[in-house]
């Protein structure tokens, strides 16, 4: 396959960015999208140019590091992570636009790399449980109804990639935040911080400068792990519950 790539290049956070055009040839349809970028970077290095910076780690679709907007879609045309997107999803001769996540809370570091530490600070605000140190508890010590366990597992699948933010026209982080809150709030282990968790994490999300949610649903459509849009409505119920409880104190 021969492709034309239009890639966002930006030297650093303070520099002006622009799209740069490159031609790559000999791309196998069985290559992953990141392997195709590796080919481009080898080509750039051999020609004495600066390679394109992009995030990656496990390349197995489980770490959430890969984060590219491909032809205007977060992670590209398939509902998967960028590292699991294969070049057979494109045609010989295609022109592909490659950009970083676009959100005020995700400033560009260099080229296609963005700073997603805002997600870390949301987690630090309440995405944990109170647990005593020591050996692991016995597996059946705390019974959890199957429906609750399934719900928790569904939301625990969130890998924090940020596709929901990139896809949202408002740059909202509600799907990510709701996944983390609902995962813990439904479990008995998360009960001690149930109210403080949702209040603190939502407050931190707002402080980071993410946009407001208008339930357009683009976040759920782009999520590679299929976190449902109902996660946001359930989080809103948790937030209202916690706000009313706090007001009565």
If you had to describe this structure to a student in words, what would you say it looks like?
- The protein has 249 residues and is α+β, with helices and mostly antiparallel strands.
- It contains eight helices and seven strands.
- The chain has helices at residues 33-46, 117-124, 146-156, 163-167, 174-185, 194-207, 218-222, 230-247, and strands at 3-9, 18-24, 69-70, 73-74, 95-99, 108-110, 113-114.
- Strands 2-1-5-3-4 form a five-stranded mixed beta sheet.
- Strand 1 and strand 2 form a beta hairpin.
- Helix 3 packs antiparallel against helix 5, helix 5 (174-185) packs across helix 8 (230-247) and helix 6 (194-207) packs across helix 8.
- The longest helix is centred in the C-terminal third of the chain and has 18 residues, at 230-247.
- The protein is elongated.
- The termini are far apart.
- The mean pLDDT is 95.
User: Helicity range of the residues?
Assistant: 25-40%
Per DSSP, the total helix count is: 8
Largest sheet: 5 strands, mixed
Described by the principal axes of the CA atoms, the overall outline is elongated
The chain-level mean pLDDT equals 95
- How much of the sequence lies in strands comes to 5-15%
Low-confidence residue ranges: none
Protein structure class: alpha+beta
Strand arrangement, major sheet: 2-1-5-3-4
C-alpha-based Rg, rounded: 20 Å
Distance between the termini: 65 Å
* Number of DSSP strand runs: 7
Order of helices and strands: EEHEEEEEHHHHHHH
